[in-house]
Amino acid sequence: MATNRIAVKPVSIGPELTPTRLPLPSPRPSVASSSERAYLRIEEAIVTMEIPPGTDVNEAFLSDVAGFGRTPVREAVRKLCFEHLLVVKPKRGIFVTEVDPVAQLRLLEVRREIDRLVFQHAARRATPEQRRQFALLGENFRRASLTNDKMLFIRNDKEFNELCLNCARNEFLTDSLRSIQGLSRRFWFCHYNSFDYLSVTALLHAGVAEAIAYGNVNLVSEATERLVDSAEALARKVAAQQGVLDEHDAIAADPSAH
Q1: Are 125 and 119 contacting, i.e. CB atoms less than 8 angstroms apart?
Q2: Tally of CA atoms within 13 A in the half-sphere of 168 that contains its CB
Q3: Dihedral sign (CA 134, 139, 142, 143)
Q4: Which residues pair with 190 in a beta bridge?
Q5: pLDDT tens digits for 43-70?
Q6: What pLDDT is attached to residue 235?
Q7: Other Cβ atoms closer than 10 A to 133
Q8: Are the C-beta atoms of residues 45 and 181 closer than 8 Å to each other?
Q9: For strand 86-89 and strand 56-57, is the pairing parallel, antiparallel, or unpaired?
Q10: Are 213 and 132 in contact (CB under 8 A)?
Q11: Distances in Å between the alpha carbon of 42 and those of 37, 51, 66?
Q12: Torsional class of 193: left (φ above 0), alpha (ψ -120 to 50), beta (otherwise)
């Protein structure tokens, strides 16, 4: 099987940003609300395919998954619908959305621009403590690459996204990225193993995190392009494997589709 090994050099971040080997502090408040914890548990279950695409779910089932009552779960469902991981179909119920490579390629057209803006703002606006968190995330991403630890990667990816949004301090970018990041993470989790993408994706995330820690906006832009290029390459491979790549290319080439 062909692999996707690439060299991503560590960023020199200096001694003032050198991470200590402590548990990664969450960018969220230390005492999260019940609805937030219910959301995080259900979101991870969907992203990691514990709840498969197309599954018909209900609030009672999701309460069992999350370990919380109906009210927190109802709020979690609202957020997950906004993120396109759940969909409510009138008179039919709540469903986990399907994984679609053509939709993923369309999503990446948007994500390329949003990621660039969010990561650049994070590099400019992060506090010294947040830069240390980015440095530690970079270390954790490299550890996930070295140990081939998919759950270490996917959980650090969620923390990385939230930390970036907190640093960017732009509610419009926050809403835009949150509406698509779960779909991207689930698509990667669904298909990374077929094309040996864990190591390369973790290293590319390390490159972005370390560039943000250093505050180098130009380096952030370059690292972001490499990251989204890799995500697009994976989506194209999946679309080609499923015989639907021509459908995306036809849409992209049609001026009326834009």
Answers
A1: no
A2: 22
A3: negative
A4: none
A5: 999 999 999 999 999 999 999 999 999 9
A6: 96
A7: 25
A8: no
A9: unpaired
A10: yes
A11: 9, 9, 6
A12: alpha
Spell out a b/e string for 215-238, using b for 16 or more CB atoms within 10 Å of the CB, else e.
bbbebbbebbebbbebbbebbbbb
What is the three-class DSSP state of 130? Answer: helix
Helix (H) or strand (E) holding 198: helix 198-214
Q: Is 86 helix (H, G, I), strand (E, B) or coil?
A: strand
Strands 86-89 and 93-96 turn out to be: antiparallel
Residues 234 and 191: beta-carbon distance below 8 Å: yes
What's at 37, amino acid-wise?
R
Sign of the alpha-carbon torsion through 87, 31, 215, 169? positive
In DSSP notation, 210-235 reads HHHHHT-HHHHHHHHHHHHHHHHHHH
Closest CA to 43 of 20, 72, 7: 72
Q: What is the pLDDT of residue 43?
A: 97
Q: What is the largest CA-CA distance in the chain?
A: 59
**Distance (Å, whole) CA 108 – CA 228:** 7
Closest CA to 54 of 97, 105, 115: 97
Written as six digits, the tokens of 25 are 């502090």
Q: Which residue type, as a one-letter code, is found at position 88?
A: V
How does pLDDT run across 167-219, given as a tens digit for each residue?
A: 999 999 999 999 999 999 999 999 999 999 999 999 999 999 999 999 999 99
